[in-house]
Design brief:
Strand content: 35-45%
Oligomer: single chain
Radius of gyration: 17 Å
Distance between the termini: 16 Å
Strand order of the largest sheet: 1-3-4-5-6-10
Structural class: mainly beta
Helix content: 10-25%
Number of domains: 1
Number of strands: 10
Shape: globular
Number of helices: 2
Length: 242
Amino acid sequence: MRPRVVSIRAVCEAAVLCLGLALGNLPTKGQSTSANYAFLLAAGFLCDSGDSTTCPAVVKSADGASYEMSGAGTFTSHSKSITAAGTFTHKSADGVVLATGVWVASELVSFDSSGIAPGVLNRESWALGPRQIGPSPFGPRGLGMFSGPMAEGGLAVLRIRLLPVLGFARNATLQVNCALGKVPTERAVEGIRLSFEKGGAEFDEEISGRAMFLMNRFGAAAAAKAQAPDAVTKSAPVDAQQ
């Protein structure tokens, strides 16, 4: 069991480091990029220290159990390549922590945009500025962003792998919904949904949490001219499922 704990912790550290490098080196005007979107899930400038409903994102199942999640990443909508990671905490209905660890995206299944909403970035509390050092790469204002993005709403469906500090890894599908732009009625509630492979409880009651997609206008223009290659799927270690 001890070697397993060390392995998961190493994966956690590597995932956070890679994500920080990916987001910290997004190109600015005049540069080309293959990642035409970045996204935040209950992280970075979306977090308001005076409002507990902003971070983390919380979703519940019918029996009252919950997952609390935060994260960030980049993806390319036409090729479905993705680099994303974050943290999670699984709690029972009475609030007992059952598992905690990180999640890593393995595939972008789909992204359905609901339109650009540039005015949202004019809010003082959500201003994009230079990178600031925080206590956690996923905490309030602890994640640097690139200049010149356009805030956009939409629904992203990701295949992810949850890597707990203790226990077995699990594969799941994560839906991240940002209710900006022309939002369909069925997607009016912002938040996340989580479902696991091989059955189990469905976590489909969005409780709280903010999400946002940020389109790199320069990268998006270049990407629109390219033909879509085959979807990129990142490999993940094979572990027994719970």
